[in-house]
Prior knowledge:
single chain; mainly alpha
Amino acid sequence: MNWLIERAHAVDFDWLTPNGSPSSTGVGYSNIFTQVIGIIEVIAAGLAVIYLIYSGILYITAAGNPDAAKKGQQGVINAVIGIVIIVAAYFIINVAINLARSASG
Length: 105
């Protein structure tokens, strides 16, 4: 969970000038792409955690109803799979960005 908080704090909007175009201070489109991907990752991880909590509450409050318990259980499984995919995407994207930056000099 700390990586999510650190990633959320790392996202800044200084990469755009007031008119919305890339700034002339050496910040290019690759940094804009990196920031947008970072924002999407934070939003996706937050939504997955919210869905995990919601599904967990659904499962706990099923009160013997097998359909509600099954729905909650499947939701928890789906949320965990989503979180694993988001974490894997985070590492894959960072490796790809680092390889691209090292290849370009």
